[in-house]
């Protein structure tokens, strides 16, 4: 390997470049980003008075192999001192709410919460869990999340808790999303152990091994539920970008939209607006549809499945209020689609990360998320909706759900177009067919990013690592 081109400078493309840099086998990495900034959906506003607002992901989970892997990277980049951890005992971890029947309900947590009947549920959750062991294994090779949870844990849990969760995580409809691709741990638990409960207790299959570094060990010892960084999560792509610049082996290009790629004798020819470059291998960290539009017609078996991967648009409205305005303390609240289709949830940012409030004087920062799979239904075409309308809808929700009567002292509306891929039923087959075509044709091409193997920041970073390892061996 001499030259690897990485298409897309979001967190996936940056992570892949970071891992490629670890290997002496690569002499040159070229990162091509079409926009004016690196970092993709990891995007923070840092106000001059010290307040920080997130327009994309805000808290990153340390759990599992992929969580450990990200913390190891954070350690290596020297960002350990900037970590803001939130422990499991923190009020933001213990208190999560759903807004059902025009009321806030705290989700049951801990043993006492599972033993009692807690509204909006009509029976103790432990009952559903206990009965789950007796449910027969499903026969389908994939199933919607709603169908899977209804079958194993009951329709009520699926309609309220799981519907809300899928809106919070994927901004998507649990009746269409695939359990196998969105929650592989649950799918594998049923496949291997015949039960979610047994799968959780006994493990649901092999996982890659990532030894924990000092920061990941600290996360376990201190029992972190999530973490952010003192200057916002955008510090992570910024630090990777600086690391790549220092390495001397990476060329970083902003505003470099790729027009077309075509196989050549030595690898690929990449056509840009202002010229042509060649690479031995391409790591494509672009959204699926963007990649489909630059592939040659000889790659038709890739183009169609890439175009079939849907995405949703989310309106993110950051609000700041003077004083302490929340009636409850917690991470935030989600809404099932039966309650309000256009409104996904409200995050109480000041509770988990008070360090991001402006210093001096009490303020409350909130983020309202809207749209997702219901965007067109609730707001019409994304290109036609006004910021004023989105802001009005967000402040009205804060007022009716949380009883906040004052107007926000500061606000920012961001429309994140096509930001979250939707893994509908059969998604895994689509991804398998694309990767087998690449293998059959011996194409020097890797597919990474949120379109394929997980939408979380950790999943996307890990997909970059996996691509680098498949190319070069262990990194």
What is shown here, in short?
With 475 residues, the chain is of the alpha/beta class. Helix content is 36%, strand content 23%.
What does this structure look like?
With 475 residues, the chain is an alpha/beta fold. 36% of the residues lie in helices and 23% in strands. The chain has a 7-stranded mixed β-sheet with strand order 7-6-15-16-17-14-18.
Using brief descriptors, characterize the structure shown.
single chain; 475 residues; alpha/beta; seven-stranded mixed beta sheet; five-stranded parallel beta sheet; globular
Adjacency order of strands in the biggest sheet = 7-6-15-16-17-14-18
Taking all residues together, what is the mean pLDDT? Answer: 95
Largest sheet: 7 strands, mixed
Number of helices: 18
Q: What ranges have pLDDT less than 50 throughout 5 or more consecutive residues? A: none
The radius of gyration computed from the alpha-carbon positions, rounded to a whole number of angstroms, is 22 Å
Helix content range of the residues, please?
A: 25-40%
Q: What proportion of the residues form beta strands (DSSP E)?
A: 15-25%
Structural class: alpha/beta
Q: Compute the separation of the termini in Å.
A: 14 Å
The total count of strands amounts to: 19
The global form is globular
Topology readout:
Layout: E1 3-7, H1 11-21, E2 28-32, E3 44-46, E4 52-54, H2 64-76, E5 83-87, H3 91-94, E6 96-100, E7 103-106, H4 110-115, H5 125-132, H6 145-153, H7 155-170, H8 179-182, H9 184-193, H10 196-202, H11 214-221, E8 224-229, H12 235-247, E9 250-253, E10 258-264, E11 267-272, E12 275-279, E13 281-284, H13 288-292, H14 300-307, E14 311-322, E15 332-334, E16 343-347, E17 363-372, H15 375-379, H16 387-402, E18 410-421, H17 427-440, E19 445-447, H18 457-472
Parallel strand pairs: 1-2, 1-13, 2-9, 6-15, 13-19
Antiparallel strand pairs: 3-4, 5-8, 6-7, 10-11, 11-12, 14-17, 14-18, 15-16, 16-17
């Amino acid at each position: 390997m001499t030259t690897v081109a990485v298409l897309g400078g979001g967190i996936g493309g940056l992570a892949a470049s970071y891992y490629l840099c670890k290997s002496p086998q690569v002499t040159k990495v070229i990162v091509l980003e079409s926009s004016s900034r690196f970092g993709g959906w990891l995007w923070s506003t840092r106000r001059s008075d010290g307040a920080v607002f997130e327009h994309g992901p805000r808290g990153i989970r340390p759990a599992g192999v992929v969580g450990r892997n990200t913390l190891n990277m954070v350690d290596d980049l020297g960002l350990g001192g900037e970590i803001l951890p939130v422990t499991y005992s923190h009020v933001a971890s213990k208190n999560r709410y759903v807004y059902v029947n025009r009321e806030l309900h705290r989700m049951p947590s801990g043993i006492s919460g599972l033993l009692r009947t807690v509204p909006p549920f009509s029976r103790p959750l432990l009952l559903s869990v206990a009965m789950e062991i007796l449910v027969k294994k499903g026969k389908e090779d994939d199933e919607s999340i709603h169908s899977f949870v209804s079958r194993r844990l009951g329709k009520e849990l699926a309609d309220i808790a799981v519907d809300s969760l899928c809106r919070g995580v994927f901004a998507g409809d649990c009746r269409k999303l695939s359990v196998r691709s969105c929650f592989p741990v649950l799918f594998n638990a049923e496949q291997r152990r015949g039960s979610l409960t047994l799968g959780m207790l006994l493990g649901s299959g092999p996982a890659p091994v990532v030894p924990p570094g000092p920061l990941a060990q600290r996360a376990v010892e201190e029992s972190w539920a999530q973490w952010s960084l003192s200057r916002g999560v955008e510090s992570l792509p910024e630090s990777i970008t600086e690391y790549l610049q220092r390495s001397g082996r990476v060329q970083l290009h902003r505003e470099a939209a790729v027009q077309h790629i075509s196989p050549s004798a030595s690898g690929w020819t990449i056509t840009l607006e202002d010229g042509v470059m060649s690479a031995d291998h391409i790591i494509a960290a672009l959204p699926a549809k963007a990649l489909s539009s630059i592939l040659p017609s000889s790659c038709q078996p890739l183009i169609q499945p890439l175009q079939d991967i849907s995405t949703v648009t989310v309106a993110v409205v950051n609000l700041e209020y003077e004083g302490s305005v929340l009636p409850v303390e917690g991470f935030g609240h989600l809404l099932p689609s039966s309650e309000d289709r256009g409104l996904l949830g409200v995050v109480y940012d000041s509770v988990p990360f008070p360090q991001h409030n402006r210093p001096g004087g009490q303020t409350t920062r909130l983020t309202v998320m809207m749209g997702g799979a219901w965007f067109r239904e609730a707001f019409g075409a994304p290109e036609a909706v006004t910021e004023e309308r989105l802001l009005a809808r967000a402040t009205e929700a804060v007022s009716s759900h949380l009883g906040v009567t004052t107007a926000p002292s500061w606000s920012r509306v961001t429309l994140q177009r096509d930001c979250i891929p939707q893994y509908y039923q059969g998604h895994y087959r689509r991804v398998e067919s694309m990767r087998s075509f690449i293998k059959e044709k011996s194409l020097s091409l890797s597919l990474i990013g949120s379109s394929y193997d997980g939408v979380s920041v950790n999943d996307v970073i890990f997909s970059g690592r996996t691509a680098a390892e498949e190319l070069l061996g262990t990194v």
